[in-house]
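Exercise 7b. Backbone tokens:
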């Protein structure tokens, strides 16, 4: 897990979300983290400053947003 992911996990946990790291259990292209509250689910992709979303990631994020999920892409800042 990168420093960036650790920061993001702490950020969402501080807002009372239950955070699950999806990197190893999901199909390719889905965001790294899912942050869950009883009434809300947020997906979060962690990127380093130099990194960019792949075409597949962009497509998956578009689908998630279309069906009503909040999705954040974080570039080395919380």
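Sequence design result:
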């Amino acid at each position: 897990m990168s420093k960036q992911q650790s920061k993001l996990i702490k950020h969402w946990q501080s807002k009372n979300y239950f955070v699950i790291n999806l990197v190893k259990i999901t199909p390719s292209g889905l965001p790294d983290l899912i942050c869950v509250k009883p009434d809300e689910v947020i997906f979060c992709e962690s990127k380093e400053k130099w990194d960019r979303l792949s075409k597949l990631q962009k497509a998956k994020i578009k689908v998630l947003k279309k069906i009503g999920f909040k999705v954040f892409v974080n570039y080395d800042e919380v």
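Instructor comment: The chain has one domain: 3-75. The CA atoms of residues 36 and 67 lie 16 Å apart.
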